[in-house]
């Protein structure tokens, strides 16, 4: 067993921000910037190996313990669940889940069971379950805004950053479902077996989070 | 209808070495358990659904694999071994003098979520010590948990101790509604440090807040017990753990023992010290157990009890793979010498020699060649002649 930790980073926007945070914390991330054909990137000045993965896969790798840690959005955690330790809110990648409906409609007025389109059926289900309200949920893979326009749904639950896309499609956010940002997650067994190494990494990230505030 | 040759998700065929891996762990464990005076109990694979809900500590309904029997009753494939054993101890064995020691070597079934690579059949091997209260029973069970993992051939593992009374003791110091306590319990258990401190912001004026916030961090060596006492004062649960630890370390088990004071178990019938085992190479706990003093009472016979279960396949995965046995010889024999042929095969190392089903010698030689078996033993009234199959 090597004494290096392995972390899975969510590809794309969160990856850039994660790497930037590591660099501010003094970790040399050159191998991630110049990956070549390698899939596992070993940082030269810290015992950490990074892999890049799609968000839900980050959770899968950490849950199975093939990666000790992961950085993933709270949106993915809410949608996919799983058992791992969610140790740190990294602050970046902040946005929110919102319920949005076509402008001028009153979503809660009708007795009719409402239909919601979303890329995040589990988040949607949990949200309406919390209200004790039955809704039909339709999973849409692409642009969710299209569903109400086409008359498929009465509203959508989706990630909202600026609200510009919603507005352009005649939708207004009426309720926040959950606030979302990037999280540092840890495999439960790794946390116990490599406590001091993992705590060191958490501490370094924590410092950067505090500085960023 | 066309037959589809796949097995249901979460299940798998286990072939040869995979069986050996599992059996090796099972035989190491059952040998140890029998040695220590535990007797085997086999309970049905299928039990009434009510059994697992009437105890007030059910698994979530969706995690149980359900069957409707002929009379229309809901049954489940056993999701847990401890509950059925408590049922037996409290009912069929109600006149047996306590304490009783039982072991089991069974499969539990959990309905897993799709495409997560989770198994729905989990082989568990474990023990229950029923009708024994107090420190010495806890000590015996925890030391046996260490020995059990060692008996499997593991050295680098931790048994991590917690106590079911610790979280409630910390939570009681706060004035919170029940739902808030539940939310807090899951945040502490999930080491969801960030969400926990956000959640507690609303109650920041209460004095016990700092302690509960730290509770999530209280895992590691014996020093966490000191910190817990510094935060929340002396409490029986902590001194109980400390006593257990002291005695275990004097007996040489100290290096295996760690603590997680925020530990909460998935099945919630535990009442006293609880513990988990972590092994290098396994992504989750491979051993789980603790004290459950109320469970037998829910079947009509109050009896304090403690025990643990080991996930056999999870342990097997952490061990080096067994060497596959190679067949080295095949015996060609005339039918009337079947007795001698079998005796000859039996005299060889297990699995290395088999009989040939062929009547003609050429066929046996051909078979040996195809199967890559180097030697053919030709048995006749005159004795045994050895031929190399590749010649």
Which helices and strands appear, and what pairs or packs with what?
The complex is a heterodimer of chains A (213) and B (391).
Chain A: E1 5-10, H1 13-24, H2 30-33, E2 41-42, E3 48-53, H3 55-64, E4 69-73, H4 74-80, E5 85-89, E6 95-102, E7 114-118, H5 121-130, E8 135-139, H6 146-150, E9 155-160, H7 164-168, E10 171-180, E11 182-186, H8 188-193, H9 195-212
Parallel strand pairs in A: 1-3, 1-4, 7-8, 7-9
Antiparallel strand pairs in A: 2-3, 4-11, 5-11, 6-9, 6-10
Chain B: H1 17-35, E1 39-40, E2 46-48, H2 49-53, E3 65-68, E4 74-77, H3 82-90, E5 100-109, E6 121-130, H4 134-151, E7 157-163, H5 166-172, H6 178-189, H7 193-200, H8 209-215, E8 219-220, H9 223-232, H10 236-250, E9 257-260, E10 273-279, E11 287-291, E12 305-311, H11 312-317, E13 329-332, H12 338-346, E14 353-355, H13 361-371, E15 375-380, E16 383-388
Strands ordered across the widest β-sheet of chain B = 1-5-6-12-11-10-7-9-8
From N to C, what is the helix and strand string of chain A? EHHEEHEHEEEHEHEHEEHH
CATH topology value of the largest domain in chain A: D-Maltodextrin-Binding Protein, domain 2
Helix content of chain B: 25-40%
Please identify the top-level CATH class of the largest domain in chain A: Alpha Beta
Radius of gyration of chain A (CA) equals 20 Å
Shape descriptor of chain A reads elongated
Q: Which value, in Å, is the CA radius of gyration of chain B?
A: 27 Å
Name the poorly predicted regions of chain A: none
Figure out the total of helices of chain B.
Answer: 13
Mean pLDDT of chain B: 90
């Amino acid at each position: 067993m090597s004494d290096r930790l392995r972390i899975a980073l969510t590809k794309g926007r969160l990856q850039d921000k994660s790497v930037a945070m590591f660099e501010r914390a003094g970790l040399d991330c050159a191998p991630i910037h110049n990956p070549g054909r390698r899939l596992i990137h070993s940082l030269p000045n810290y015992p950490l190996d990074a892999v890049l993965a799609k968000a839900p896969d980050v959770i899968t790798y950490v849950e199975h313990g093939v990666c000790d840690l992961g950085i993933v959005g709270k949106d993915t955690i809410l949608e996919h669940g799983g058992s791992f330790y969610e140790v740190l809110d990294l602050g970046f990648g902040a946005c929110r889940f919102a319920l949005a409906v076509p402008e001028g409609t009153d979503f809660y007025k009708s007795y009719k069971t409402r239909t919601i389109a979303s890329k995040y059926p589990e988040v949607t289900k949990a949200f309406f379950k919390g209200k004790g309200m039955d809704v039909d949920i339709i999973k849409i893979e692409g642009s969710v805004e299209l569903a109400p326009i086409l008359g498929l749904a009465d509203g959508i639950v989706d990630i909202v950053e600026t609200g510009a896309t919603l507005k352009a499609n005649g939708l207004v956010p009426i309720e926040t479902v959950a606030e979302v940002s990037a999280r540092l997650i840890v495999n439960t067994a790794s946390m116990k077996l490599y406590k001091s190494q993992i705590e060191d990494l958490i501490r370094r990230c924590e410092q950067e989070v505090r500085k960023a505030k | 209808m066309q037959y589809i040759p796949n097995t249901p998700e979460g299940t798998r065929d286990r072939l040869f070495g995979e069986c050996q891996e599992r059996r090796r762990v099972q035989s190491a464990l059952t040998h140890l358990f029998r040695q220590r005076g535990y007797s085997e109990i086999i309970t049905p694979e299928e039990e009434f659904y009510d059994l697992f809900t009437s105890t007030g500590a059910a698994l979530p309904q969706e995690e149980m694999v359900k069957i409707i029997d002929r009379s229309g009753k809901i049954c489940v494939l056993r999701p847990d071994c401890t509950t059925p054993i408590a049922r037996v101890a409290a009912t069929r064995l109600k006149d047996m003098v306590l304490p009783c020691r039982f072991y089991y070597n069974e499969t539990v079934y959990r309905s897993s979520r799709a495409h997560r690579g989770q198994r729905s059949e989990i082989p568990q091997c474990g023990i229950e010590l029923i009708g024994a209260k107090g420190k010495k029973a806890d000590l015996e069970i925890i030391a046996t948990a260490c020995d059990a993992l060692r008996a499997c051939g593991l050295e680098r593992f931790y048994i991590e101790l917690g106590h079911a009374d610790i979280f409630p003791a910390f939570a009681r110091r706060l004035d919170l509604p029940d739902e808030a306590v539940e939310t807090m319990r899951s945040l502490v258990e999930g080491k969801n440090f960030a969400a926990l401190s956000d959640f507690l912001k609303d109650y920041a004026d209460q004095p016990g807040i700092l302690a509960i916030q730290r509770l999530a961090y209280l895992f590691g060596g014996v020093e966490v017990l000191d910190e817990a006492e510094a935060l929340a004062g002396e409490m029986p649960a902590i001194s109980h753990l400390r006593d257990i630890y002291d005695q275990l370390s004097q007996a040489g088990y100290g290096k295996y023992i760690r603590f997680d004071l925020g530990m909460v178990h998935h099945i919630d019938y535990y009442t006293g010290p609880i513990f988990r085992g972590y092994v290098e190479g396994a992504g989750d706990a491979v051993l789980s157990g603790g004290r459950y003093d109320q469970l037998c009472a829910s079947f009509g016979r109050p009896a304090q009890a403690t025990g643990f279960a080991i996930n056999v396949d999870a342990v097997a995965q952490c061990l080096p793979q067994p060497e596959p046995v190679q067949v080295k010889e095949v015996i060609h024999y005339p039918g009337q010498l079947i007795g001698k042929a079998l005796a000859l095969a039996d005299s060889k190392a297990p699995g290395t020699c088999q009989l040939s089903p062929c009547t003609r010698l050429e066929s046996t030689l051909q078979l040996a060649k195809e199967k890559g078996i180097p030697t053919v033993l030709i048995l006749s009234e005159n004795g045994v002649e050895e031929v190399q199959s590749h010649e």
